[in-house]
Amino acid sequence: MTGTGGGGGSAVTGAGGVDVTAQACAQSGGVLNAGVTPLRRLTRDQYNNTVRDLIGATGQPASNLSDDEKIGPFHSNAIAPITELEVQQYFEVSTSLAQTAAANIGKISPCDLATDTGSSTTCATQFLTQFGRRAYRRPLTAAELQQYLSLYALGKQGAGVQNGLRLVVQTMLQSPLFLYHHDVGASGAPQPGTVAVSAYELASRISYFLWNSMPDENLFAAAASGSLSDDAALAAQVQRMLADDKAAATIASFHRQWLDVEDLGDQLKDATTFPAFSAQLTDAMTTNTTIGRATGVVMQRFQLSADRAFELLTRVSRIHDLTLEVLADQILEEITNPPTQSSDDGPAESLWLVPQTG
User: Fold this and answer.
1) Which one of 95, 150, 327, 335 has the fewest beta carbons within 10 angstroms of its own beta carbon?
2) What's the whole-model pTM score?
3) Is the separation of the CB atoms in 69 and 75 below 8 Å?
4) The domain made up of 263-353 is a member of CATH 1.10.10.10
5) Contact by Cβ (8 Å): 323, 290
6) With contact defined as beta carbons under 8 Å apart, do 335 and 297 qualify?
7) How many CB atoms are closer than 10 A to CB 47?
């Protein structure tokens, strides 16, 4: 998103000491310009993470999909239209995933679908309501629920509840409402001008920003209650999510994309020209990005130069008898999951308690 508004910090000044934020606001005539938010198809990492959290899929199913587009160094499927080949790929991947989900029906459905007898759809309605909310990342409309009840009944007829569930999962995983980030506001349809995102859209934005995956039940509940409109509640959700391992994985992925080192391990080099190039070297180069991130954290925390921050890291690693890689991992973990105070044993041990000077 782009905009002309500023935060609550110090004014941004340009040449001649002009407050450029105030100047931009004056030029806009008080009209908020948030830019255009395009449809963005899930990246391959997002697809893998989402089906993992949605149906417990394992492995890398998105490896059977076409490569992601890139905007700058970052994966973002927001420009090129989808091709017939990609449609076929999504069909094949969803078919395989749905078959696996049907074989694990007890983990997918919150109730026993076999208990629906005759014309009863009590459990089917419960399953579709819950699964549809998670797959579409917002509640199904009444019309959508009825459509999926009909589809489930069609699949179940003569083939059993597993086939009904398989057909529903396969269909939802191919829906644009699953495959795309679509931020259109409470109306459910694109609107002219600047429109506030809905609570579920905000939950989805937070989740894919911090976890690169769908919201969990806690975040869905916050969206349903409307509490995400409260700054304190929103901040609490962010802090909770940052403490999750999924946030660490997302941050690491960001740096690998930013530094363009994702495919280091796949690089082929002529052994005569580059005799020192090896798998160990590529691992070391990837590890170095972790150390670089930790150095940046130390620079910001202690207001140090890059050289001084790296020197401090080196000293601390020797004091704690740790390799730089392990120390860097611990520092990054402590940033997202700070140590707590113990009333019996004094302050919790922290790498930040090591003196900076001496």
Assistant:
1) 150
2) 0.74
3) yes
4) yes
5) no
6) yes
7) 25
